[in-house]
Each structure stands twice: as structure tokens, then as C-alpha cells.
Amino acid sequence: MKSIHSSYDALIIGFGKGGKTLAAYLANQGWTVALVEQSPLMYGGTCINIACIPTKFLIHNGELGKPYPESIQEKDQLTAALRQRNFNMVDQSPNATVITGKASFVSPHQVSVRLIDTDEEIVIEAERIFINTGAKPIIPVIPGIEQSQRVFTSTTLIDQQQLPSELVIIGGGYIALEFATMYAQYGATVTILDRSAHFLPNEDRDMADAVLATLVAKGIRIELGVSVDEIIPGEGQQDTVLFRSQEGNQQSIQTSAILVATGRHPYTEGLNVAAAGVELDVKGYIRVNERLQTNVPHIWAIGDVNGGPQFTYISLDDYRIIRSQLFNSKPYTLLDRNLVAFSLFTSPPFSHVGLREEEALAKGYRINVATLPAASITRAQLLKEPAGLLKCIVDADTDQILGCTLFCADSHELINLVQLAMRARFDYTVLRDTIYTHPTMSEGLNDLFARVS
Ligand SMILES: Cc1cc2nc3c(=O)[nH]c(=O)nc-3n(C[C@H](O)[C@H](O)[C@H](O)COP(=O)(O)OP(=O)(O)OC[C@H]3O[C@@H](n4cnc5c(N)ncnc54)[C@H](O)[C@@H]3O)c2cc1C
Ligand SMILES: NC(=O)c1ccc[n+]([C@@H]2O[C@H](COP(=O)([O-])OP(=O)(O)OC[C@H]3O[C@@H](n4cnc5c(N)ncnc54)[C@H](O)[C@@H]3O)[C@@H](O)[C@H]2O)c1
User: Which of 47, 237, 239, 325 sits between 20 and 30 A of 293, alpha carbons compared?
Assistant: First the structure.
């Protein structure tokens, strides 16, 4: 283990995507860098250990028909290898040190760390400090939720070695839909209980309905507009979940596992930002300006904890914003960030970039809209994934693409192609007339954009 100094050029708190990339970059530039991570099981951060990578691995293995316990074991091997690689990426740099312990501010330039291996408390000082502590699941107040032994978060559920025979999911967002798809694929009976009266409320209804129909066809029960009233711990293998339907009827479900997926809030617990004078916003996120600087000029916040969209690639883009101001390269700030696409990894995946039809109309655009059933793409047929719908929104006055939503096989790749075309400000005709290789899902873009009139 490396010796720990009392002072560094840069201190990064939390091993998130932006922070670890920044740590390696700064160390390569000759800065002395300390990266403090509270848990050795979290070297590399949330994405590789408990979020994007393990979940997408499990979804993929499920689609291949691998049994659940085997997939969980393989997932553990994968995350262990990635953890080691991430640790080395930072700690093997001669200028950087990973310190394992919980960080807490004691003054604007000083942070105390309780070291995990010795329980000793040290204080380190740094000229610049970057907070990258991520987010944690919100646990709603529901009677019985704390007493139950069968309530899980996304982190703890994918640590279970045995597949639950039934899974009730509280929530209807990203985690709920991805876990519903995944656990149904492995053979669990899945029920989603979402408080929202509308399924995928931000999406156009035709697209949301296409996803809903596909999940229901996979045997997933989806209850919208419900209120979960109580969890009654059972004596045997099951708990009872009591909920009120949209119509106000009391209902109950017996289940062997309950997943709470009701959003994630900023992780600032124990960080004592007040000692540094750093302000939080009303929701508890660290308040930052467009350069991701807090109200204390030598302290920045990166990733989920600063209240931006909660995606790994946004944390990475936060790193770009900070790098540009520290090294006086071409200025890049939050004001320059546009067109953030996303993919929701259901089967098939659901991906979106730009404006939805309803948003474009609300903004006063004159638009042309086209849709294409995924089943009409030959590649979707040969993949045996005919479910889905593709949709594009084009500005009728300029022929520019305003938005695109793809619910089809490989949409998580295709959406990046559409995003690039939008960033390059190509007319929609470019995607319509490009010669794509065959047989691919990209060819669907020929047909989708040919329907724009
Ligand atoms: C189940 C799930 C699936 C997801 N899937 C995707 C996906 O497919 N694609 C996508 O882009 N995003 C996905 N996300 C979101 C993505 O994981 C997060 O947006 C991203 O990991 C946030 O990274 P970050 O840089 O904010 O910090 P994190 O990676 O969250 O790192 C924060 C680190 O700080 C540490 N820490 C906290 N407090 C302290 C302290 N006081 N002292 C020391 N260390 C501390 C934590 O232990 C943690 O390791 C998913 C999230 C979840 C939960
Ligand atoms: N593919 C990806 O990129 C990916 C995958 C997973 C997670 N994530 C990130 O993680 C974040 C957190 O995901 P999430 O699914 O926890 O949050 P979310 O914000 O996406 O969804 C929260 C859901 O919980 C519901 N809800 C809230 N309180 C409830 C209650 N008491 N009872 C019933 N339903 C309730 C809401 O109606 C909503 O449907 C996401 O915002 C996303 O940025 C991304």
C-alpha cells in the first residue's frame, strides 16, 4: 500500500466515473492526487459494481437462457475483475493514491478520512477538491418495509444467489422496468406497482403503449396509479403487499421478494459539506454553476450528486467540463451540453434523443412525424425480436431531425447514430438515403425516414 501524504494538489471524494477519470488525468499531468473511496467493494464506483454493468450483464445472460444462479456468479467474477482494473488505473499512477475510508469535511481545504483497514482517522489537505459521491436509493415510508426480510434495493437483489419465484417491484422507472424484464426472463412472476397514473409519463403515448404491450405480453403485471399501503412480513416464504388500485380498491399480493425502485437521492450522508461552507439545493443535491463549481470556488461536484441526469456518461461528461477549465482548453460548460440520449434496457431496449412529438408541438414547431413497426425490419425478424416501434419527429420547415424514439432490437446502438446526425445538423434525408450494411437494424432508418412526408 502507498504511503498517504498530508497534502495533495487534488482530492477526489468518491470513485465515480467522472472522478476516477479526472484522477487518472490529473496524475498524468503531474498533479499529486488522492482519491478517497469508502468501500473496497466500490472501487470503480456504482456503474461497474452495482449498476449499469452487472445489470446489463444479467439482462444479456437472461436473454441467452443462462440459469439465474450461474449468471449471478459470473456477474460477481466480472465485477471483481473490473474493480481491480479500476483500482489499478488510479493507484498504479506514481502521482495518485487510492485511500479507502469515509471522507468528511472538517474545513474548506481539509477532509478527515476514517481508514477502513485500521479505523484510524487522518486529515488530508488539498488545494482543489472534487466531490463525486453519487446517489443512493430512496426508501419510501411504507408500514412494514423495515421489518420485512424480503425487501431489496437494486444493489441487494442482484446479490441474491437464488431466483425469487415472485417479485413485486415498487416503482415504474428505469430500474423497475429493467429489473422487471430481467427477472421475468429468468422465470420469476413479476408485478410492477407504480404510483404514476401514466406508464412512462414523459414519453409519447404511442411509444409508451408499445412498451407496455410488450412487457405485458412477457407476462409482467403492471398496476399504475397505485398506493402501496403496507408490507406484512410472513412466517413462511412470502410477505404480503397491500395496495390500493387507481379505482380505490384494496388488493394484496403474496411475494417472495420486493424491489424498491422509487428513485435515487444524492449521497452526501456523513460528508459534512457544511464544514466547507458548500451549499445544497432544496432536494439535497450539491449546488453547482455551469462549470460544476460549488459556491466555494476550489470545490467542484461531479456526477449524480450535483443533480444532473443520473447516467454514467453524464458523470464522464462532467469530467470533460472540469478538464476544460483546469487546463484552459476549448471552454466547455453545462450550457454547451445538449442532446443527451438515453437507453432503457428492456427487451427490446427503448432509446430516445431530442424532442418527443408532444414536446415539439408544445414548442410551436410545424412537424412531420413518421413511425415504423420494428417487425418490418428484416434484421428484427431474423433476431426473433419483431416487437417494437420506431418514431421520428422532423421539422417541416427545415427538414432537421428534432427527435427520435426507438423501441427495437439494438436501439441502444442506433440512437447514437441518430444523435450524431442531429449534432451534425444533417437533414433527415441523410439518414433516409445512407447505404447501410445488410442485414442490420440500421436499415430501419432508411425505411423510418422514408415515411416522413
Ligand atoms: C441499477 C442501476 C442501473 C443503472 N444503469 C445505468 C445504465 O445502464 N447506464 C447509465 O448510464 N447509467 C445507469 N445507472 C446510473 C449510473 O450508475 C449512475 O448515474 C452513475 O454510476 C453515477 O456515477 P457517479 O460518478 O455520480 O458516482 P458513483 O459511481 O455513484 O460513485 C460514488 C462513490 O462515492 C463513494 N462515496 C460516497 N460517499 C463517500 C464518502 N463520504 N467518502 C468516500 N466515498 C464515498 C461511494 O461508495 C461510491 O463508490 C444505473 C443506476 C442503477 C442504480
Ligand atoms: N439504463 C439506464 O440508463 C438506467 C438504468 C437504471 C437506472 N438509471 C438511473 O437511475 C435513476 C434511478 O432509477 P429509478 O428507477 O430508481 O428512478 P426513476 O426516477 O426512474 O423512477 C422512479 C419511479 O418510482 C415511482 N415511485 C416513486 N415513489 C413511489 C411510491 N412510493 N410507490 C410507487 N411508486 C413510486 C415513480 O412513479 C417512478 O416511476 C434513474 O433516474 C436513472 O437516471 C439509469
Answer: 47
Nearest residue (CA) to ligand 2, atom 2? 344
- Are 381 and 425 members of one domain? yes
ipTM surpasses cut 0.95 = yes
**438 classed as catalytic:** yes
Low-confidence ranges of the chain (pLDDT < 50): none
Number of domains in the chain: 3
Segments forming the whole domain that contains residue 274: 7-137+265-336
Q: Is 177 one of the annotated binding-site residues?
A: yes
CA distances from 100 to 136, 171, 377 (A): 19, 33, 51
Q: Which set of grid coordinates corresponds to residue 169? A: 417491484
Determine the 3-state secondary structure of 85 from DSSP.
Answer: helix
Whole-Å CA distances, 186 to 50, 55, 72, 170, 218: 19, 13, 11, 19, 11
Ligand nearest to the CA of 57: 1
Specify the CATH number for the domain of residue 47. Answer: 3.50.50.60
Cα separation, 360 vs 402, whole angstroms: 8
Our answer on whether the CB atom of 8 is closer than 6 Å to any ligand 2 atom is no
Which residue's C-alpha comes closest to atom 35 of ligand 2? 171
| Count of C-beta atoms within a 10 Å radius of residue 28 | 13
* CATH at 429: 3.30.390.30
pTM of the full structure:
0.97
